[in-house]
Inverse folding.
């Protein structure tokens, strides 16, 4: 689990700093997950199964990075709008 999380963190950092394009990361992540769910159960070797599981989990975490960025960006925009509206209300209230 630690390896999967650290792999996802490192890849997520690359995504956040635009070293890996977002679309490429998402497509690759979905491809790895689909491959794991279609082939992962048939792997006979314990090591190969563990490596496949680590890859699938790390890619699932990586797919969450853009979702978190979108959610956090949206929350930031909403907060800025709320602050701007509050500032306008206070400014117009003082004008009278």
């Amino acid at each position: 689990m630690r390896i999967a999380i650290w792999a996802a963190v490192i890849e997520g950092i690359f995504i956040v700093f635009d070293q890996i394009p977002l679309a490429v990361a998402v497509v690759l992540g979905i491809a790895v997950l689909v491959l794991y769910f279609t082939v992962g159960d048939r792997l006979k070797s314990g090591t190969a199964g563990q490596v496949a599981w680590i890859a699938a989990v790390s890619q699932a975490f990586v797919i969450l990075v853009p979702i978190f960025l979108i959610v956090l960006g949206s929350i930031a925009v909403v907060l800025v709008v709320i602050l701007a509206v509050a500032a306008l209300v206070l400014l117009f209230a003082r004008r009278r």
Observations:
- The radius of gyration is 21 Å.
